[in-house]
Design a protein that fits this description.
Strand content: under 5%
CATH class: Mainly Alpha
Helix content: 40-55%
CATH superfamily: P1 Nuclease
Number of domains: 1
Largest sheet: 2 strands, parallel
Structural class: mainly alpha
Distance between the termini: 63 Å
Number of helices: 12
Order of helices and strands: HHHHHHEHHEEHHHEH
CATH architecture: Orthogonal Bundle
Shape: globular
CATH topology: P1 Nuclease
Strand order of the largest sheet: 1-2
Amino acid sequence: MRTLFGMALSFAALAMTPAKAWNNFGHMEAAAVAWSQLTPAAKEEAARLLKLNPQYEDWVQGVAASQHDQVAFVKAATWPDQIKSLPGYTSDGTQNGNVAPDTPEAAQNIGYVDHFRHKYWHFIDLPFSTDGTALKQPQRPNAQTQIALFKAALADKTASDDLRSYDLAWFLHVAGDLHQPLHAAARFTRAGTDGDAGGNGVKIKCTKCGSARELHAFWDGLLGPTGAPPSDAIAAGAALKKVDAGSTDERDWIQESFVIAKQSVYAPPIRSGNGPYKLTAAYQSRAHRIANQRIALAGARIAAILNKAFK
């Protein structure tokens, strides 16, 4: 009985684990890559729209006027995570807001008047199992359903500036989210029959993991410290090799991340249980290489979509 009670507590704690993707550094780096590939017209329109964000003045405080547009664009990619701790915003849904409520408001797209945090918009947990455990399909709405709405609104010249500004910040963020492999996958095993919430239920340890104690957190922090200034992320993005955007269909991005998760994230030394597993130097090196590749792709794809929407 004590064992069963302990397992129940573990699953309850897992269900309430915050759903995050790349930390602030990763999201800023993806946006920095995108900014470097935007056309002048797209930069002008993005800058105009982001001035409507309620956090705009905070983003550019202390920044040289000549850098306002770029820094605001880079910081905007972190806004959907910012509102998780800002007063005036509500964690709708259950399990600390990570499970969508069964109401029309869960999928609404109404602009800055919306003060829900919509944490369930950040991911789509495609399920898989290595031991035949029954799977549970992703909830709706999710990152796939919402990014399609954002893309459509950004390209709609009849939509209000308020809506397009709101959607631009969310688009920058969720496009980055979907390139983090653990935001498109959840593993179901006998040790975790409710799924591992994108690796949040897998414990890890390593000498250079910082504060990360879960597999998801390790992947979140691969690109740099979350408290680093935008200038660091901009420099890191500039150092990445430019890649061709390829597909601009978010369904393809999700499938790419899903395959990477199965083949590379849940690879040895990660096994079928909940850990803790000690990450080897080889695993960490491979993870860094994959993270850089995904950020370069995310940036190129964001730019390709905005260049078309804002031409």
